[in-house]
Amino acid sequence: MSAMIRRVVAAVLLTLASAAWAQQPSRLPHRVWLSSGVPAADVLAELRSAGIDELAVPVGDAELGETTTRFTMRPMPDLKPLAGWSVTALVWVNGQGKDVGDAEQFWTQFAPTLRMLPGKGSLLLVARQYFEGLSRFAAAVAAESGQSVGLALSAQELAAHLPVGGWPGIELVPVAFGNPQAFGFPPSTIHDDVTALDEIDQRGTPYRPAIVVGWRATPAPGPQPVSLSLITRGNVATYTPGARGDVFALKLPVDWGGSRLDVGQTVEVEVVETARYHRDLGLVLRPTRANLVGWDTVSLPSGEPALGMSREAFLDYLRGGMPYPTPDVELAVNGTIVSVGLRNPSPHASAIATTGNWVELHYSGTGVRDIELGEFSGVQFGRLEGGVFKEIVARDATLVRLYLPYVAPRSRVSGGAVAFLSGPRTLAVRWGLRLGDGSVVSGPLESRDVRTR
After folding, report:
1. Distance (Å, whole) CA 337 – CA 94
2. Domains, the chain, ranges and CATH?
3. CA 145 → CA 119, 123, 140, 321, distances in Å?
4. pTM summary value
5. Is the pLDDT of residue 278 over 70?
């Protein structure tokens, strides 16, 4: 893609990506949950430069009984790097039925932990499921502490139980969009979450939605970093779309983060790519949400290589980058043979798709003698009719479309080669991708030099 075209595409997308944000009356604070520990100082500096205002650190668990509460502190990371940050203590709450616990007992147990955090510190109670005593416990903790307390719960459950005006002393954190099951929250659909947020907004109480960007994988990988490219490249696995994710039947053994997976095993993965996060954030930042006071990201993505959106992709997007790849098609002409490759220099990825990711080689004045796929996964002959691809027989074709299941971050796909009957009179290329939000994007048709080089 030429520099000029790339700048035009970037400008258009940035305008669309910023539309909801720009219509907010003031900039909304963004908090990130540090579910995998406190990152290094240089990463924290990058988070701040990307506009992240607050951090949430998991500190323990609260078990509620009918009249008692037991707080168990988790092993604490080194908190010194968080000096100067606004830090929220995150406590997971478990209970059932009418269990309301004992707010005074909880605060006595919890207060020393809160004092360990930099600055004043605040509290966010998180429950994977609603139970009748939960809101009463949270309100009692707010009264005992003399400060507002956050309560995170699935958006649908909050909408189902929240009274008009909310609960006293409680700031709502409805968990919506993304991949809530990655943290044990109930599954949801986009429509359900949009409806729930609309209903919460109408109750007249402040709230800040939380988008879960964590991943789920079965079996879980070992301790080493992994990415989807391990199971999407070449002939490693057979892909089929699942109900909530992607399913791979292994045809070759795989080192899955330090754990060996054998031929015949199945891997099921659900991830949140940047394009999906972009869509979800747009649904959160609708200008009609009068009581929206911020948003959370759950949790900080890991660095490359990563399943789903990496930390590098997350930061690039927050700084104004496009939420999807804009790859370069690489051609090399040698007489009647044209080699084809695709390079993605960005930290963003496509979705996994059987025919949604492709490179087209357009030609004239000749026909195709043979094709080598290399690292591509399939091929179709066709022509453009009204700007739309139509598959036809090879002898009538004016283009070759090469498919690939996945365009990984910072990757290169090569080895494709088209042998023509004679030197083509003209050559042009185009690419197309399916994104994690279900949408598709394609590049412009670009002419290329037919001379051998």
Report:
1. 65
2. 3-214+271-318 (3.20.20.80), 216-270 (no CATH), 328-448 (2.60.40)
3. 16, 10, 9, 41
4. 0.91
5. yes
